[in-house]
Amino acid sequence: MAKKAGLGRGLGALLGETAGEVHTDPTSDATLKELPVRDITPNPDQPRRTFDEDDLGELADSIRQNGILQPIVVRPHEGSYQIIAGERRYQAAIRAGLDVVPVVVRDVSDKEMLQLALIENLQRSDLNPIEAACGYRDLMQQHGLTQGELGQVLSKSRSAIANALRLLDLPDEVQHLVRDGALTAGHARAILAVQGEDARVALAQKVVSEGLSVRQTEILGPLFSVKNQPNTRARTPRPQSYKDAARALRDKLTARVTVRTVRGRNKIEIEFGDEDELNTLVNKILGA
Asked: Which CATH architecture has domain 2-18+28-127?
């Protein structure tokens, strides 16, 4: 696992820069230079899939007036240079009509490149929840990382990674709504609680059309689950005798006891914590 742990160096160590700042220390292995735009290619594994047209237009206007204030980070690749971080600046530079752009050249592996592209976008909150989840999944699949290991790389908890990946279980139609910003990650998690793709899509459409809050979505969820199960029968109340028997057994055994009917079969269920508690229950039942 030592090789995987090396990913934990993070964005600063691998790029020779902190968020928003490029170091040009001559002792660094990074090279600061200018490159023709035609010699630079985008990263095909760029986690960010959507670029806001208005934002790109505003950035292009700023670049025309002030130039690119933070160099694009690239690596040598197949006779040209491939973007590691700064795809948005690159796209805006093309719109602004620039022929050359400032870059920091780094020699990094495919694994480091994907990690750095993901971290850069996450640090700037540029990824929507689905893009972030896809980035997590790609890192895990391509490089054999567990959720816990990826969490260490990105300074996130394992549960945060797991919750993000769950969004990819949503129907494509709902994922598109999250990508477009019509639904938040909170809405998406509430929709995930509903069983069945059709019910999830129906709830998502209602949330968007009525502008419902996350809390309202959570409240509506069970109703859509019921609608998705037309053959669901109303639960038959347990007989009073079952409740009385469970109470008497709880008092006798000092344990949690349930008497109920499951799929047409009557059951007495007794809970215990460990082997010692089990032995105590057995002795009580047998009168030992």
From this structure: Alpha-Beta Complex (3.90)
